[in-house]
Amino acid sequence: MWQSSSSNQLEDILGKKYTCRQKNENCATNNEDRFNCRFCRYKKCLQCGMTPENVKYNYDSAVHHTKKPSPLMKNEYQEHPSDPSSPVDLVNNMDQQLCIRQTRDVVKDVTYEVQTDEKGEPIVRLDITGLLNNITSVLDDFVPSDDIKSLNTLRRMNHALIEYRQIHHSNVIKFVQSITMREILMTGNEQIKSITKFLMHSVPFRSLRNEDQMQMLKSIWVQWKRLERYVSTAQIFGKRMYEDQILTSMETAFMLAQMSWQVAGKELQGDVLKASESEQEALANELHLYYIEELRLPNYASRLIKINNIINAAQKIHFERQNFMDIVRIFDFFRVHVSDPEMYKAYF
Predict the structure, then answer these.
(1) What is the CATH number that goes with domain 127-344?
(2) Above 80 in pLDDT, residue 334?
(3) Residues 179-191 pLDDT 10s
(4) Which residues form the Nuclear receptor domain (predicted)?
Protein backbone atom coordinates (compact mmCIF):
# COMPACT_ATOMS: atom_id res chain seq x y z
CA MET A 1 0.00 0.00 0.00
CA TRP A 2 2.75 2.47 0.99
CA GLN A 3 4.89 1.64 -2.03
CA SER A 4 2.02 2.30 -4.42
CA SER A 5 1.04 5.53 -2.66
CA SER A 6 4.61 6.86 -2.67
CA SER A 7 5.10 6.12 -6.34
CA ASN A 8 1.89 7.86 -7.33
CA GLN A 9 2.74 10.94 -5.27
CA LEU A 10 6.21 11.19 -6.76
CA GLU A 11 4.82 11.08 -10.27
CA ASP A 12 2.90 14.29 -9.57
CA ILE A 13 5.95 16.36 -8.59
CA LEU A 14 6.81 18.56 -11.55
CA GLY A 15 5.46 15.83 -13.82
CA LYS A 16 8.49 13.62 -13.10
CA LYS A 17 8.65 10.01 -12.05
CA TYR A 18 11.40 9.12 -9.58
CA THR A 19 12.65 5.65 -8.78
CA CYS A 20 14.85 4.42 -5.97
CA ARG A 21 18.53 4.24 -6.87
CA GLN A 22 19.07 0.94 -5.10
CA LYS A 23 15.62 -0.42 -6.01
CA ASN A 24 14.90 -1.21 -2.35
CA GLU A 25 13.25 2.11 -1.35
CA ASN A 26 15.41 2.22 1.78
CA CYS A 27 18.40 4.44 0.89
CA ALA A 28 20.16 6.34 3.69
CA THR A 29 19.49 10.09 3.61
CA ASN A 30 21.55 12.64 5.53
CA ASN A 31 22.76 16.24 5.41
CA GLU A 32 26.38 15.40 4.56
CA ASP A 33 25.87 13.80 1.14
CA ARG A 34 25.34 16.21 -1.71
CA PHE A 35 23.30 13.80 -3.83
CA ASN A 36 20.63 11.78 -2.02
CA CYS A 37 18.17 9.40 -3.61
CA ARG A 38 15.23 11.64 -4.55
CA PHE A 39 12.68 8.88 -4.09
CA CYS A 40 13.82 7.97 -0.56
CA ARG A 41 14.39 11.60 0.42
CA TYR A 42 10.79 12.45 -0.49
CA LYS A 43 9.57 9.35 1.31
CA LYS A 44 11.39 10.50 4.46
CA CYS A 45 9.78 13.94 4.16
CA LEU A 46 6.33 12.35 4.15
CA GLN A 47 7.22 10.24 7.19
CA CYS A 48 8.13 13.43 9.06
CA GLY A 49 4.75 14.97 8.30
CA MET A 50 5.83 17.34 5.53
CA THR A 51 2.54 17.44 3.62
CA PRO A 52 0.74 20.30 1.82
CA GLU A 53 -1.83 20.53 4.62
CA ASN A 54 0.98 21.12 7.11
CA VAL A 55 2.56 24.10 5.31
CA LYS A 56 2.33 27.40 7.26
CA TYR A 57 2.29 30.26 4.78
CA ASN A 58 3.67 33.67 5.88
CA TYR A 59 4.29 32.33 9.35
CA ASP A 60 6.44 35.33 10.36
CA SER A 61 3.93 37.99 9.36
CA ALA A 62 1.65 39.64 11.92
CA VAL A 63 -1.45 38.41 10.08
CA HIS A 64 -1.46 34.73 9.14
CA HIS A 65 -2.95 33.60 5.86
CA THR A 66 -3.96 30.08 4.94
CA LYS A 67 -3.60 28.58 1.52
CA LYS A 68 -5.38 25.42 0.44
CA PRO A 69 -3.45 22.69 -1.37
CA SER A 70 -4.30 21.94 -4.96
CA PRO A 71 -7.22 19.51 -5.52
CA LEU A 72 -4.85 17.06 -7.21
CA MET A 73 -2.53 16.87 -4.20
CA LYS A 74 -5.46 16.83 -1.77
CA ASN A 75 -6.99 13.82 -3.51
CA GLU A 76 -3.69 11.98 -3.39
CA TYR A 77 -3.45 12.36 0.39
CA GLN A 78 -7.02 11.29 0.97
CA GLU A 79 -6.69 8.18 -1.17
CA HIS A 80 -5.43 5.90 1.60
CA PRO A 81 -7.06 6.94 4.89
CA SER A 82 -6.71 3.53 6.47
CA ASP A 83 -2.98 3.26 5.95
CA PRO A 84 -1.27 3.93 9.34
CA SER A 85 1.74 5.36 7.50
CA SER A 86 -0.26 7.56 5.14
CA PRO A 87 0.30 11.35 5.12
CA VAL A 88 -3.20 11.97 6.50
CA ASP A 89 -2.39 10.09 9.69
CA LEU A 90 1.05 11.68 9.81
CA VAL A 91 -0.54 15.14 9.75
CA ASN A 92 -2.76 14.21 12.67
CA ASN A 93 0.29 13.02 14.62
CA MET A 94 2.53 15.93 13.57
CA ASP A 95 3.02 17.28 17.09
CA GLN A 96 4.22 13.91 18.37
CA GLN A 97 6.67 13.48 15.48
CA LEU A 98 8.11 16.99 15.21
CA CYS A 99 7.90 18.22 18.81
CA ILE A 100 8.61 16.34 21.98
CA ARG A 101 7.40 19.24 24.16
CA GLN A 102 5.37 22.34 23.42
CA THR A 103 4.27 25.14 25.76
CA ARG A 104 2.12 28.10 24.89
CA ASP A 105 1.39 31.23 26.92
CA VAL A 106 0.22 34.81 26.48
CA VAL A 107 2.57 37.32 28.12
CA LYS A 108 1.61 41.01 28.05
CA ASP A 109 0.12 41.12 24.54
CA VAL A 110 2.55 38.53 23.15
CA THR A 111 1.76 34.89 22.37
CA TYR A 112 4.82 33.03 23.60
CA GLU A 113 5.34 29.48 22.37
CA VAL A 114 8.27 27.16 23.06
CA GLN A 115 8.74 23.99 21.06
CA THR A 116 11.40 21.37 21.56
CA ASP A 117 12.31 19.35 18.50
CA GLU A 118 13.32 15.71 18.45
CA LYS A 119 16.95 16.69 19.08
CA GLY A 120 16.01 18.51 22.27
CA GLU A 121 16.72 21.97 20.84
CA PRO A 122 14.21 24.70 21.78
CA ILE A 123 12.44 26.86 19.22
CA VAL A 124 10.75 30.03 20.50
CA ARG A 125 7.95 31.65 18.50
CA LEU A 126 6.59 35.07 19.43
CA ASP A 127 3.42 36.52 17.94
CA ILE A 128 3.41 40.23 18.88
CA THR A 129 0.23 41.20 17.05
CA GLY A 130 -1.42 42.20 20.34
CA LEU A 131 1.54 44.39 21.29
CA LEU A 132 1.51 46.16 17.93
CA ASN A 133 -2.22 46.79 18.27
CA ASN A 134 -1.74 48.34 21.72
CA ILE A 135 1.10 50.54 20.47
CA THR A 136 -1.11 51.69 17.61
CA SER A 137 -3.81 52.60 20.15
CA VAL A 138 -1.28 54.74 22.04
CA LEU A 139 -0.24 56.45 18.81
CA ASP A 140 -3.87 57.14 17.92
CA ASP A 141 -5.29 58.11 21.31
CA PHE A 142 -2.53 59.42 23.61
CA VAL A 143 -2.69 63.15 24.31
CA PRO A 144 -0.26 64.86 26.76
CA SER A 145 -1.85 66.55 29.77
CA ASP A 146 -2.94 70.18 29.48
CA ASP A 147 -0.57 71.39 32.19
CA ILE A 148 2.51 70.81 30.00
CA LYS A 149 1.25 72.38 26.77
CA SER A 150 2.89 75.69 27.66
CA LEU A 151 6.31 74.04 28.21
CA ASN A 152 9.01 74.04 25.57
CA THR A 153 10.19 70.84 23.89
CA LEU A 154 13.01 70.03 26.30
CA ARG A 155 10.88 70.52 29.41
CA ARG A 156 8.09 68.40 27.93
CA MET A 157 10.56 65.59 27.30
CA ASN A 158 11.88 65.94 30.85
CA HIS A 159 8.32 65.70 32.16
CA ALA A 160 7.82 62.53 30.06
CA LEU A 161 11.07 61.06 31.41
CA ILE A 162 9.99 61.67 35.01
CA GLU A 163 6.68 59.91 34.28
CA TYR A 164 8.53 56.96 32.74
CA ARG A 165 10.79 56.59 35.78
CA GLN A 166 7.87 56.77 38.18
CA ILE A 167 6.07 53.99 36.34
CA HIS A 168 9.08 51.69 35.96
CA HIS A 169 10.81 52.53 39.27
CA SER A 170 14.15 53.34 37.68
CA ASN A 171 15.62 54.07 41.12
CA VAL A 172 14.97 50.50 42.31
CA ILE A 173 17.54 47.84 41.46
CA LYS A 174 16.70 44.16 41.88
CA PHE A 175 19.50 41.60 41.82
CA VAL A 176 18.68 38.21 40.30
CA GLN A 177 20.77 35.17 39.40
CA SER A 178 18.73 34.35 36.32
CA ILE A 179 15.75 35.68 34.38
CA THR A 180 13.17 33.88 32.28
CA MET A 181 11.99 34.78 28.79
CA ARG A 182 8.55 35.45 30.28
CA GLU A 183 9.99 38.08 32.65
CA ILE A 184 12.00 39.69 29.84
CA LEU A 185 8.89 40.00 27.69
CA MET A 186 6.70 41.34 30.49
CA THR A 187 9.21 44.06 31.35
CA GLY A 188 10.22 44.90 27.80
CA ASN A 189 6.70 45.17 26.41
CA GLU A 190 5.58 47.57 29.14
CA GLN A 191 8.67 49.67 28.52
CA ILE A 192 7.94 49.80 24.78
CA LYS A 193 4.52 51.31 25.45
CA SER A 194 5.96 53.81 27.93
CA ILE A 195 8.67 54.85 25.46
CA THR A 196 5.91 55.37 22.90
CA LYS A 197 4.24 57.79 25.31
CA PHE A 198 7.58 59.55 25.83
CA LEU A 199 7.86 60.12 22.07
CA MET A 200 4.25 61.32 21.89
CA HIS A 201 5.26 64.35 23.98
CA SER A 202 7.13 65.57 20.89
CA VAL A 203 5.00 67.65 18.52
CA PRO A 204 7.00 66.66 15.38
CA PHE A 205 6.63 63.00 16.31
CA ARG A 206 2.86 63.34 16.68
CA SER A 207 2.70 64.96 13.24
CA LEU A 208 4.25 61.93 11.52
CA ARG A 209 2.18 59.24 9.84
CA ASN A 210 1.46 56.12 11.91
CA GLU A 211 3.76 54.07 9.68
CA ASP A 212 6.69 56.44 10.26
CA GLN A 213 5.95 56.61 13.99
CA MET A 214 6.01 52.82 14.24
CA GLN A 215 9.23 52.53 12.24
CA MET A 216 10.92 55.17 14.39
CA LEU A 217 9.83 53.39 17.57
CA LYS A 218 11.19 50.07 16.30
CA SER A 219 14.54 51.64 15.41
CA ILE A 220 15.19 53.50 18.67
CA TRP A 221 13.35 51.92 21.62
CA VAL A 222 16.11 49.45 22.54
CA GLN A 223 18.80 52.15 22.49
CA TRP A 224 16.51 54.49 24.45
CA LYS A 225 15.87 51.85 27.11
CA ARG A 226 19.54 50.97 27.53
CA LEU A 227 20.74 54.58 27.68
CA GLU A 228 18.14 55.40 30.33
CA ARG A 229 19.26 52.35 32.32
CA TYR A 230 22.94 53.35 32.02
CA VAL A 231 22.15 56.78 33.45
CA SER A 232 19.97 55.38 36.25
CA THR A 233 22.65 52.85 37.18
CA ALA A 234 25.34 55.54 37.30
CA GLN A 235 23.15 57.73 39.49
CA ILE A 236 22.55 54.88 41.93
CA PHE A 237 26.01 53.27 42.06
CA GLY A 238 28.44 55.85 40.70
CA LYS A 239 30.00 57.85 43.54
CA ARG A 240 31.75 60.25 41.18
CA MET A 241 28.53 60.62 39.21
CA TYR A 242 26.67 61.52 42.38
CA GLU A 243 29.34 63.94 43.65
CA ASP A 244 30.02 65.72 40.36
CA GLN A 245 26.38 65.78 39.26
CA ILE A 246 27.47 65.20 35.68
CA LEU A 247 23.92 64.80 34.41
CA THR A 248 20.71 66.42 35.55
CA SER A 249 17.26 65.07 34.71
CA MET A 250 16.91 67.75 32.03
CA GLU A 251 20.20 66.70 30.42
CA THR A 252 19.15 63.05 30.50
CA ALA A 253 15.90 63.95 28.73
CA PHE A 254 17.94 65.85 26.15
CA MET A 255 20.21 62.84 25.60
CA LEU A 256 17.32 60.43 25.11
CA ALA A 257 15.43 62.72 22.74
CA GLN A 258 18.57 63.72 20.83
CA MET A 259 19.68 60.12 20.36
CA SER A 260 16.18 59.04 19.26
CA TRP A 261 15.99 61.67 16.53
CA GLN A 262 19.58 61.13 15.41
CA VAL A 263 19.03 57.41 14.86
CA ALA A 264 15.59 57.85 13.29
CA GLY A 265 16.79 60.56 10.91
CA LYS A 266 19.68 58.44 9.64
CA GLU A 267 17.68 55.24 9.21
CA LEU A 268 14.27 56.42 7.98
CA GLN A 269 14.88 59.61 5.93
CA GLY A 270 11.89 61.38 4.29
CA ASP A 271 9.42 63.09 6.62
CA VAL A 272 11.19 61.60 9.63
CA LEU A 273 14.47 63.27 8.61
CA LYS A 274 12.74 66.65 8.30
CA ALA A 275 11.12 66.24 11.72
CA SER A 276 14.47 65.08 13.12
CA GLU A 277 16.32 68.19 11.96
CA SER A 278 13.60 70.48 13.33
CA GLU A 279 13.43 68.74 16.71
CA GLN A 280 17.20 68.53 17.20
CA GLU A 281 17.55 72.25 16.50
CA ALA A 282 14.80 73.06 19.03
CA LEU A 283 16.38 70.78 21.66
CA ALA A 284 19.82 72.37 21.19
CA ASN A 285 18.45 75.91 21.54
CA GLU A 286 16.45 75.02 24.65
CA LEU A 287 19.40 73.24 26.26
CA HIS A 288 21.45 76.41 25.69
CA LEU A 289 18.80 78.49 27.48
CA TYR A 290 18.68 75.91 30.29
CA TYR A 291 22.43 76.24 30.87
CA ILE A 292 22.46 80.04 30.69
CA GLU A 293 19.28 80.91 32.59
CA GLU A 294 18.82 78.06 35.06
CA LEU A 295 22.25 76.55 35.74
CA ARG A 296 24.10 79.85 35.21
CA LEU A 297 26.77 78.15 33.12
CA PRO A 298 27.90 80.46 30.31
CA ASN A 299 30.81 78.10 29.53
CA TYR A 300 29.18 74.69 29.18
CA ALA A 301 31.25 73.29 26.29
CA SER A 302 32.95 70.59 28.38
CA ARG A 303 29.59 69.48 29.76
CA LEU A 304 28.11 69.20 26.27
CA ILE A 305 31.13 67.21 25.07
CA LYS A 306 30.56 64.66 27.85
CA ILE A 307 26.90 64.34 26.89
CA ASN A 308 27.77 63.73 23.23
CA ASN A 309 30.42 61.19 24.24
CA ILE A 310 27.82 59.27 26.26
CA ILE A 311 25.41 59.25 23.30
CA ASN A 312 28.14 58.05 20.93
CA ALA A 313 29.31 55.35 23.35
CA ALA A 314 25.74 54.08 23.84
CA GLN A 315 25.22 53.89 20.07
CA LYS A 316 28.53 52.08 19.61
CA ILE A 317 27.55 49.46 22.19
CA HIS A 318 24.16 49.07 20.54
CA PHE A 319 25.50 48.56 17.01
CA GLU A 320 28.20 46.14 18.17
CA ARG A 321 25.54 44.06 19.89
CA GLN A 322 23.28 44.27 16.84
CA ASN A 323 26.07 43.09 14.53
CA PHE A 324 26.80 40.21 16.90
CA MET A 325 23.14 39.18 16.95
CA ASP A 326 23.01 39.33 13.14
CA ILE A 327 25.84 36.78 13.02
CA VAL A 328 24.10 34.64 15.63
CA ARG A 329 20.91 34.59 13.55
CA ILE A 330 22.77 33.80 10.32
CA PHE A 331 24.16 30.62 11.88
CA ASP A 332 20.86 29.83 13.62
CA PHE A 333 22.38 29.79 17.12
CA PHE A 334 19.52 31.82 18.58
CA ARG A 335 16.26 30.25 17.54
CA VAL A 336 13.66 32.91 18.31
CA HIS A 337 11.13 33.64 15.58
CA VAL A 338 9.07 36.84 15.93
CA SER A 339 5.99 37.69 13.87
CA ASP A 340 7.45 41.21 13.36
CA PRO A 341 11.25 40.73 13.55
CA GLU A 342 12.06 44.46 13.42
CA MET A 343 10.52 45.10 16.85
CA TYR A 344 12.95 42.83 18.73
CA LYS A 345 15.84 42.95 16.26
CA ALA A 346 18.34 44.46 18.71
CA TYR A 347 16.66 43.44 21.98
CA PHE A 348 17.61 39.78 22.30
Answers:
(1) 1.10.565.10
(2) no
(3) 887 888 888 889 9
(4) 1-57
